Queue: 2 jobs
Job 1
Amino acid sequence: MEESLPRARVEVDTRAVVHNFGVVRSIVGDARVMPVVKADAYGHGLEEVVRALDEVSPSFFGVANVAEARRVAAVSSKTPPFLLGPSAPGEREEIARRGWGVTLSSWEEAQHFENIAAGMQHVLPVHLAFDTGMGREGFLPEELGSLLPQLSSLSHLRVEGVMSHMPCADEDEEFSRSQIRLFEQCVNEIAQHTELHFVHLAASAGILRFKIPCANMVRPGLMLYGVSPVPCLQAKELRPTLRLLATVTLVRTLPPEHGVSYGRSYMTSAPTRVATIGIGYADGWRRCFSGKGVCVCIRGVKCPTLGRVTMDQIMADVSAVPEVQTGDEAELIGSSQQVEELARLAGTIPWDIFTGLGPRLNRCSCHPAAMPAAPSPPPHF
Ligand SMILES: *Cc1c(COP(=O)(O)O)cnc(C)c1O
């Protein structure tokens, strides 16, 4: 099939992802690590990230749905995907058959998986999810007393893990500490009935903020992709993993009093050298960046964008860089502009910017040399 030349692309440094995995290990010591690769590895490209991380022996790859689990399984033969949320009844047969990590949040799921496992004449390992404050999934801790005897009647299920999720590890220390205590009580009670291999609570913010002695696994997402959700010392160890680049498709000089973009949302006041760049909101370059003074970096110079972001193109004032020409590359995310900055301008969070990077973008791996120099050497792991 003939493809058009990519006008905008994401350059991913998978070695930086592996480095950041090492930073997680240096923080959590002996605990196991489940890298979270949902949402196309936060916009980085699931396959490449899984391939790179498979080398450093994670315990599972965290995914959001069965389609992502299949993609993980197609690339990694040694690390199973782990479904972080509930599955649909029609998907459970495949999950059980393929040995993917699974959480139970309800008695209905437990019974269904029991039936499937019985049909397979197999004992299925499962993780129990507990809702210790997130309000999204899991059994309630107060259900535990009645749940344990019920579960013991399901002879084809073996509880090998317990998990929960922290809703405010980045903003409410007191609540998070009480949540950790509650989780620990659940874990202790379950551990009296079954041998637990995996106990996991913390995502990136929890990893950076809290010691959770009862846990032996962590689930980092954002920090693997070089961004810390909380200000902290270890944040400096993380390396950026992604650059967003787009091509200059046209350069012209517009006269004074000429409108730029829909709504003529920018008006030139003097002759202005305007570059048109091949990226728009359909690629994940948010429409709300319009009029916020967001810059793009061309030939090492920050050039302000002009007028509204359109679906496929944006315009930038390159008057300060007369040598700019068609085919030049503009950096939109990278050392000249960080995801955190863009998220702040858009009134959102870095996760949202990363995962908004659309399927039309070409994704490619790069050599680390093409990335901004790392501030510190990688720790041993
Ligand atoms: C997405 C997710 C994570 C990863 O979260 P980050 O904040 O990106 O580290 C971990 N656990 C669960 C259950 C998730 O849904």
Job 2
Amino acid sequence: MKVRFLNLSVGDPAQKKEMINALDEVLTHGVLINGPELQAFEALIAETCSRKYAVGVNSGTDALFLALKCLDIGPGDEVITTSLSWIATANAIAMTGATPVFADIGDDLNIDPKSVKNLLSDKTKAILPVHYTGRICNMEKLLKIADSADVSLIEDAAQAFGAKRNEQAAGSFGALACFSFNAMKVFSSLGEAGAILTDKKEDVDRIESLRYNGTINKEVCIEPGLNARMDTIQAAFLLQKFKYVERIIHRRREIAAQYNELLKDIVDLPQEQPDEYNVYYTYTIQTDFRDELQSFLMSKGVETKIQHPFLMPEQPAYKEKSPSMTENAQRIVKRILCIPANEKTTDEEVEYVARQIKLFMEAQ
Ligand SMILES: *Cc1c(COP(=O)(O)O)cnc(C)c1O
């Protein structure tokens, strides 16, 4: 049996037809940038996440960068973020000229609020937690810390569209929140896309200017910016895809529940708590035999992934250049393994993968 980790082809004929129709409509009206689909998409995302506004941009990385710029974060400032994330999180901070400061993580793979508290300094301008694996951080504690230190909180919700904590949606906690709709994400475009959420109209104006070379009225440049606009066609695809998001999340949660049952007491599991509703961007298990298990699974036709094999502060770009606190993270990063758990994974595949893991672990 061959079990793919992820398969991005659009196999369902109805879905494929909808995508082609969406393309057809954009070709017909011809507003390829800032078209009506973009505005419809922004309104839909804002509403879904209980925010006043959403601004579409061309990637999650740009969403993070522009959110930080919107808060005037730059050289001399520090932004506290997690140690374990896709490197885009740290890069967005560093590209503003600010210094990323890397906090430790807990067993839930999310930033540890205690560590954040310990890393606060006079230079701290913001806290940038990542809802890793599609699981929302402990926002009660993080917001309290940000509040008492009088710093902003920006959510990196790139992996967590649709996730909830105490019934509250990912993207609705921070002053600003950033999403990615990159092709690999749970809610994905057919390429690159992202968005920033806020409740302030002045943030919208600033980000809309920054995403188009810092201009107002298209020609007058009031500050340096990027070209970071979302294509109308990606917004059109996302509007179609949105109809399936709930089903996608439901299926991912169903698979997680199956693994939870089949792998109980065999490896360490995500352990979703009663107040959490995780979307399982990845289903990440932990074991001391991670590398051996990954090789074994590969020999049995099972594709797995280590997301991510290096902590951000261990990357050459950041090593010894940024303050960090990584004791738990260093232990955990050697134990994590993402196993196939996307909406196309079948029950038979889940059972097969779980059986192989069980076989391997029993022999240890
Ligand atoms: C994917 C991702 C990003 C970057 O999003 P892109 O759209 O790929 O630029 C940022 N942070 C996290 C946690 C991500 O998973």
